[in-house]
Amino acid sequence: ATNQAALGNKVDKNRLVYDVKDYGAVGDGVADDTAAIQSASNVAGNGATVFFPKGSYKITATITVPHAQTWRGATFYMDNLPHSSRIVSTVVGATLVMQAAMVENMRLEGPGDAVVNSIGIQSGASSMTIHNVSLYGFETGIRLSNIWYGYLDRVHTTTCAVGISVNYCYNLTI
Description:
Helix content: under 10%
Number of strands: 15
Distance between the termini: 46 Å
Shape: globular
Structural class: mainly beta
Number of helices: 2
Largest sheet: 10 strands, parallel
Strand content: over 45%
């Protein structure tokens, strides 16, 4: 076994993948996975990847994601239930707050489009990439502001009062 302390700075943390289930997430749609997901995201830190195996992850509070982190689901087909990675949110406010980040191969389900201020993904500075993501049942699916580079590809919103809200962004490809 390799001694982690002996490796010191030789490990590139940005190349590591952190599985939310290793931090206590259950992914059954019933158990509250908020603390486990926030823990995995915090431990992973800036620039790393957080992986969501297939399952339904219940979120009851806003998750703040470190800078330049990637969140990756299990399958390219984000709506292929039960094989997809789903986040089921009961949050009033933003479910995910991300800066210079990437979300891909995920399905986010909100508390309902009539729930005022429910937001699937919110990013307020820097850059953002959203790829192969479906958003259902939020007042606003995606809220982008002050994005200097953004890329949205294969993004699907339904039963959202506003699919994508854009404010003061440039170099944005949708």
